[in-house]
Amino acid sequence: MSREADLSPEYRHVRRLETDWRFHRGDLDDGADPEFDDSGWEVVEVPHDWSISGPFDSENPGGRQQGFAPGGVGWYRRGLPDDINRDATIRFGGVYRNFDVYIDGEHVGHRPYGYSTVNYDLSEVGVDGGETLAVRVDNDEYPHSRWYTGSGIYRDVYLIETDPVAVAPFGTDVRTTSVDCRGADVRLRTDVRNAESTAVDCELKTEIVGPDGEAVATARSESPVGANERREFEQRVSISDPERWTLQNPTRYFAHSVVYRGGTPVDDYVTPFGVRTFEWTADSGFFLNGESTTIKGVNLHHDAGCLGAAVTESALTRRLETLREMGCNAVRTAHNPPQPELLDLCDRMGFLVIDEAFDKWRYEGADEWFDEWWYRDLSAMIDRDRNHPSVVCWSVGNESYDHGEDEMIEDLEMLADAAREMDPTRPVTYGSPGWGDDTQSVLEKTKRVADHVDVLCCNYQEHWYDDYCAEGIDLPIVGSECRPFFRGSGDDPLAFVPRNPWYDVAEKEYVSGQFIWPGIDYLGESREWPSKGWPTGLIDTTGAIKPSGRFHQAAWSEEPMVFAAPIDPGRDRPAARSPWSWPPVSAHWNFPDREDSRGFVNVFTFTNAESVALYQNGELLGAQRADDFGPRPIEWYVPYEAGTLRAVAEEDGEVVAEHELETAGAPGRIELDADRETVTADGRDLVYVEATVTDGNGVRVPRADNEVRFSVSGAGEIAGVDNGNLDSDESWVGDTRSAYHGTCITVVRADREGGTVEIEAEADGIVDDSVTVTVEDEA
């Protein structure tokens, strides 16, 4: 992450309502009654997802779509803080789904869509502190989604106190109108609302603060704001010699807006933004700040393995760090508005984003509310996310079941026009599937879609890109969903051609890039029981890069790398849809069935270097050039011997990377590895601790499935356990998990008081291990 100023509001009071929540699973007639006795309810912290606690069961009505997770109805209650003394707004980052909010029994608001950020003005019910906040969540109607959603208040809740005259929620719109070598011109629109019963004279001062914390530009405006009205202030400033927001150096500036009444500051609002330009072109791809930039992206769902849908910033950071290690530079938020922390991290870490609003529009249960709510939900996403420099495209939907039909095209036109009106600075798109009876019908539907979008997002259509250009579709093209190994052919977008779709990006200058489906394994959209999710991502639910994911690391990363991946037909793999699968590549050198007969092992080596030399037990087996294999990995047939297999990558005759596999013996011990040495005592920070079953020499035992028991003492608690096996029947919560391919993890959440937390792991018949992590008090 780049350096940046630490700037927080001074005059408004913002606090997160995390603790003191009580939760009841099931419906009640009087759950909103302030006199109701909730002392017997479960005490929880928000964010909270009750579905991940299970039980997962083949009879649960959500079925395969929800990964057989439970849903139902739940109630949350807590008291508002006692010290509210100004106008209060409560903000729900996301509640899944169909929720109602009450203050002291009075209904405040309702929202069907579970992914929108919603603000409720509590001044209308006259809160002054201590009132009972109650939230009813109804996730008991099916179908409502094609994948695991979680249930409950799964994103953060904020209480925001301001003066009656204040910047409205998400009330700033910061646009860089021009940039050159001398400076950047910035236009700011700020929505100030007056909740007083009389008009007031306002002054708005906006200061642009640079990454070093120093002011670089200032604007002032004065205007009366009528009683119970809103006034939009427009201001323009220039920034001399600005630092650009780039993927390598994602510098942010901050617009600090201060509202004055009678010369006295009464409210302020901080808006991070970036100075950058971008352009999608039909003939040369995507450009960021005038430089050609290949989009190397992934699709991400919002759950995170054993955490379910209740994902905090530290979990998101770890995911993005792993993706960045692979060379990934973009995310498509499939298929809903993400939690705001994800976009903030993409801004700070240098990722591009296609921000997506909906999936099937009028299907999967949305037909009951879509007409009434679509505009408010789309506006909620764009108003909230429009100042993020990472966001370079709005997607209004994905793969409507009536794709290409008249009603669908009317909906697409309606949504796309609305998005452009809300924000004319970014292009609008739709996740367009390759559906049709044959190639010609796909082309006709695609042309209809192309008339209403600015970027053609193609799901699984690499083999038709040239056809689209030949048909006169003059739009930027990006692969919005691409399979990780196979490519389509002829009339079949899901054919099994072993030519990786990446090469259609690498070989076609006009293609802006790709987004792999999926980047990370996710819950839901599973196969038959006991499958719990989609297992063909580049990264598994524990956060480990899979052997197959190393192909894309070689394709995307600029860091020299090589990875030896033997084909293991006996490797256990969760049930998956075969068109999205890879051959069964592995990361071990244990093939005892091949040893006596001198059988061969088929090995892929993934590299971004010129050539790879392969050694077995120190003996050179040969060297091969990557260019000789065209759009395929380097492939070997190795006469198996136990010991070591070492791949050595060379560039211009120099060794640039190595990767070695070693034959493992019998399980002998557990080795623990914490991904961080220090966490923050905030009740949210996480440390991921991997338990690996190794032999006496510290080599991972690839088929070890020992049941590992975790225990935690000190300043932390177990938040979940996982092993990456989406067919497992073990619970995501608890303290026990079996090793899968020799590993499993526990996720430990820090307490709110500093100290240390010790994590121990044991399994029958092998040596245990422990690790200690420091928990530091918040600064």
Automatic annotation (TrEMBL):
SUPFAM superfamilies from the UniProt entry: (Trans)glycosidases, beta-Galactosidase/glucuronidase domain, Galactose-binding domain-like, Invasin/intimin cell-adhesion fragments
Keyword field: Glycosidase, Hydrolase
DUF4982 domain boundaries: 601-657
Biological-process GO terms, alphabetical: carbohydrate metabolic process
Domain Glycoside hydrolase family 2 immunoglobulin-like beta-sandwich: 178-276
One of the record's GO molecular function terms: hydrolase activity, hydrolyzing O-glycosyl compounds
UniProt cross-references to Gene3D superfamilies, sorted A to Z: Galactose-binding domain-like (2.60.120.260), Glycosidases (3.20.20.80), Immunoglobulins (2.60.40.10)
Pfam families associated with the record: DUF4982, Glyco_hydro2_C5, Glyco_hydro_2, Glyco_hydro_2_C
Domain Glycoside hydrolase family: 670-771
Stretches assigned to the Glycoside hydrolase family 2 catalytic domain: 283-468
Similarity comment: Belongs to the glycosyl hydrolase 2 family.
Protein name: Beta-galactosidase
Taxon lineage: Archaea, Methanobacteriati, Methanobacteriota, Stenosarchaea group, Halobacteria
